[in-house]
Amino acid sequence: MNKYFFLFLGLSLSILSCSDDDGIKNGDTPDPDPGADVTAQNFMWQAMNLWYFWQADVADLADDRFSSNAEYTAFLESYPDPENFYYSICNNHRVIVGTDAAIDRFSSEEDNYETLVNSLAGISQSNGLEFGLGLIGDTDNVFGYVQYIWPDSDASTKDIQRGEFFTRVDGTQLTVNNYRTLLFGDNSTYTLGMATVTNNTISDNAKEVSLTKIENQIEDPILIAKTLDVNGTKVAYLMYNRFLSSFNEELNAAFAQFVSDGATELVLDMRYNPGGSVNTSRLLASMIYGTNSNDVYIKQLWNAKIQAQLSEDYLTDYFTNTTGASAINTLNLNRVFVIATGGSASASELVMNGLTPYIDVIHIGETTSGKNEFSITLVDDPGNSFIYSDDRTGQINVNNSWGLQPLVGRNENADGFSDYTSGLLPDIELGEDLTNLGVLGDINEPLLARALQEISGVGAKIDFTVHMKAESFTTSRIQTPLKDNMYLDKPLELKSEQ
Known about the structure:
Blueprint: E1 2-6, H1 9-13, H2 39-51, H3 69-77, H4 82-88, E2 108-110, H5 113-120, E3 123-126, E4 129-135, E5 142-149, E6 165-169, E7 172-173, H6 179-184, E8 189-198, E9 201-212, E10 214-218, E11 222-230, E12 233-240, H7 248-261, E13 265-269, E14 276-277, H8 278-289, E15 296-302, H9 304-307, H10 312-315, E16 316-318, E17 335-340, H11 347-355, E18 360-365, E19 373-375, E20 403-405, E21 407-413, E22 428-429, H12 446-456, E23 474-475, E24 486-487, E25 493-497
Parallel strand pairs: 12-13, 13-17, 14-24, 17-18, 18-22
Antiparallel strand pairs: 1-25, 2-20, 3-10, 4-5, 4-23, 5-6, 6-7, 6-8, 8-9, 11-12, 15-16, 15-21, 19-21
């Protein structure tokens, strides 16, 4: 029978063993010279050598890359900046806006792991304003447009709403070179200079809005959950903006209300959802499709050295009948209408792909992001295989606060499909129109209206022409430590034969 235990390096992987001399023997891993100032870089190399999905494809992460500890130390010292070192060992390095896409577009890091961990729980410093950023014509100037506002946030108390535009921060024009500092820097308060769009031309206006970022803000990912009556058909509408496990019960409660309302159709709006918890995606899929725990939801694929250590049972996730705290409320649908765009990534795409073998997934919107790999949080705790655990914070190296969120695996659905790196294509293509973003949750909001038209079979009296397409090179959702991560949130276990 299989016996399961947590994955520790000292067991079968034993990557921490070192040779007694400067030469590195077969099966050993390098160890930096004493006194070398490479603590962060050493942690990063050791962790990525073990966990990185493309470890076998990155020459500098090869198990036999270094012949001596001196060579290893020199390599680490050649990158004095730990951030630069980290991206140097990611597959094809960091991706900058405007460059060709790399194989790894999504691995990330944070110089303080606590910030990263809080972000994974939905906790951040925020003023509650979510927006996209686009370029003004052929210039380097940038404009922003408001996508939505968190309830009970600072922005919710100010004169600003979805569909408004801004071009300046504290009187300075936004550009590709300063937007990170002005909007996402250490400034807790800033003033937006608003703008007007007329005939596809953006012009500054006199309106200003001052916003303040509040510490430890928590966003409820369920922005809207309500049941619509569409020509006698009860249609559940859920605008879901992040897969956060801390809100699993609230998500289940929303479906309880849908069931109570007699909903027989669902419009799942994930146009701004960049991802999050893999397990929460499984719960949501079960709330939509059903609770048969014999049906495979997804299977994990890891690098070769990790894949060999994990059991088939561990690698397979099934639909479920429980959140862990309560019974799943499910609509038992045979189809779902999903609003998804380029802002829909990772766990959002996972739900769509995981449901496809079982029900019709009618995708309305645009091609999704194409993030089909998951990540885990790594810290300098070699005794736990570098995996972050909130009950082991005392074991993390006090001299190294870096946290990593690298891609470590890929999920395939029950049909074995996982190759959507280029994104999931829409069945009904329709982008957002900056001149008519509409009110989220309103039956006349263009993307929702298009879904309802498909459900009712009755042509809507709405012009779906897009006059000024919403095209952003980044969004406020991505400029956070959580970014568009899809993270595995179940304990890793290693198999052995008893």
